[in-house]
Request: fold
Amino acid sequence: MASIYVDGTLVHQSDGSFTGDGRFRPYHTALPSASTVINPMQGFYLATGNVLVENSSGDLGSFLFVDRPMTQLEIQQAGAPSADGLLDATSHDAPHAGAVNALSPTHYYRLNESSFDTGSPTVVDVGMSPVTSQHEGNFPPAVAGSNGVWMSGFEKGNLALSHNDAGAVDLGSGGNFAAEQMTFSIWFKVKQPTYGVGGLYADRIFLNNDSSHQLGLYAWTEQTTGDDIGLVVSTDTDGAHSARLSSSVVNLHDGGWHHAVVLRHGDGTVLDGNSNPRADVSLIGDGVDYSSDLIQSGSSWGNTGTNAHIGTRSIGSIGNFAGTTDEVAVWLGDTLTVAEAQNLYNAARTPGSLPTYSQAVLDLDPIAYYRLNEPAGLTSGETVVNWANQGTTSTNVLGDACAGANENYPESAPTSGVAGPRLEDPIGGWSVAGLEADNTAAQFTGLQTGVANSADLVNIGVQPALMNSEDLTYSLLFNTSDANQYMRMLVTDPGATDPFCLIMDQGHLVLVLNGTDTTALDTDETFNDAQWHHVVAIREGDLASDMRLFVDGESIALTARGGGWTAASSARIGARDTGATGFRGLIDEVAIWNRALSNAEAQGLFLTLAVPEPTSVILLAFGGVLILPLLARRRRK
Amino acid sequence: MQPLWKLAAAALIASLILATGNALAGVAGVCNFDGNLSTTYGPGGMYYMDEDDAAHDPPGIPTGDSNYRTGTPPGGHTATRTQTSFGSDALGGYMTFPKATDTWTGYYVDHSYARSNPPTTGGLNRYTMMMDLRVPSSSFTSDSYMSLWQTNASNSNPGDLFVRLNTSNSGAIGISTIGYSAAGVIQPDTWHRAAWVYDETG
Reply:
């Protein structure tokens, strides 16, 4: 098949075969006849003269040669010429996909299909040697196009395949996915006890079903109790070739996304006579090499000897996976190094691009930065990414947070994917220019009438030690028109040595230490005006007088008011607990420092977020004095 | 405390988005023609070649190869082609190549590739080529065809991809072997991003 595109549009296509001398087949090594002309040759010619002098003058702006057929989507995305070189124009991969592609996988299923389709091929393989693959099973309950892995190294809108014990991907002949030395990587998500209970077989997350060089990864649950047994890797059908990573070593079945890379080094047994791991298989989970933790699986694991699958051994009969998979890559004849496997996970936690404001926040080394830009559909118990712990090995950062209180309170997750502060949103005389044009935020609804435990929150964790500090800083953006009392925006655990709470009370912002000094301070002005506001709250010591507040870049005067505020049972965004006092409105870009930011740092953050609206820009161009009246109307202290 | 307006002046010049580059699978070579023929990514390379200039033999070609440099090329043209010139515009650097007046001038591209599966016999049968191309209106007036690329090692046929110029179906791109696009796809004095994808296996 030969296809010609101009400016991203397919302008001609031919399915003929061109096997003659030249004619679309650049020679690789020896020519048919060494005496013909050039020998050896590994190239071709551009804009050359020729026997008929059929050539002309012209300009070339960029040239790209890729040793694989790029997909039509890739060509379309490259579009028309631009100031970006061709490599930039054609490289749309977020860091994780880029890291996978850089290792030239034999097969790579991004599983970004948005719907179940019986057409062929239905599941796209963007690897170096793509094969025809398709969905199989029952859709629904299986879902193609569910939310995919969401970390900083993935593109927003990444999709995945929810197998839900009913659907899978038939990859075709298992021989295309099997070699004595091979590797596969996969992202998966399982939630206890929704899979495998009472079943006779472990769930197959991936299985090549090849009789000669079997390789598979299974999630194993105890048949009657539903207890999590762990992950199993098998390289053959008997127990000697099957190893298990016990859930007592690491729990990878907690409802969150996890990454596994399985390396098959050979056909030998995976454990020696003393049940010590041998070199024939390695398992890297979430970037950690667990190979030395592998134990005898305690069972044998069969295959059908037919087609490879993602999410089943044989759909409708054995080993259907009840979880979700994403980003499945296979390398044949090549075992990645442990470092390469770990790099795939690290790439998933590496921001591909950051808006100015986000970069400014991270440059100040927060212990947490919850951008709250999770895709729509976030459910209670799912991960809320802490961008401060992405792409770093620092221990001075908190872990990821959790949407909602936990899985037991499904109504307590905030609504994700709601429009956040963007360029068109005014903040006083300023415009939000430091965030993405499609920036999203989280919407918190407070306690819903008649629905117990429904106050939306993000759970940061019980008494994070890093937040036990006399000096703390919070920053966030909020937008509300609600006039309720006692609405918690960001609060710490009362068990913390040095609590610190940011609260909205009838539109006034309230700062509470609730420790040695229980005096609360609040603002005279109200901020529940249905506009976005940027707030930086700082405590720099044990006394109420040690607290400072900036709103939209301005220092705000605070007045003492009564204390006695009950904090939360853990550090939380949006509510004290799942009951009353939940915040009603939008929150975005929550950052926490275990130090007191300086006034200049607090103001500087706002200035990376917002720029004066056009009239203000003109005033600035004529001199700062002219803009003073504009800013003075917001000066309060 | 710094007045906000003073700090705002600095904020006005801040860039809005920081971006990082990412890899594209299978890239064997990229040339952006920013004043030279250097490839900026991948293992491949690009070289100017001229049959009358030993300094511009493609790599791997024995100096004095009688069939390449000093012999009689198919077509028998002997005039020397003026070497490449470079320029830049709003889209960045570009290379201007003049009309070749003999056969053995042009640009040799070494497509050495790394981890993919090279063919063991015959030619490279799966690939993508892409180029930003501008054809001056003068070429549309004076010439019949623009030869874009050639896979025939002996350069003994006209080439593998053409733009039709001062002939019927002007502005079509393709080759008779596989057919041409509609006329007018390539417009005079206009940058276009042309890509051709070949997959003999699918």
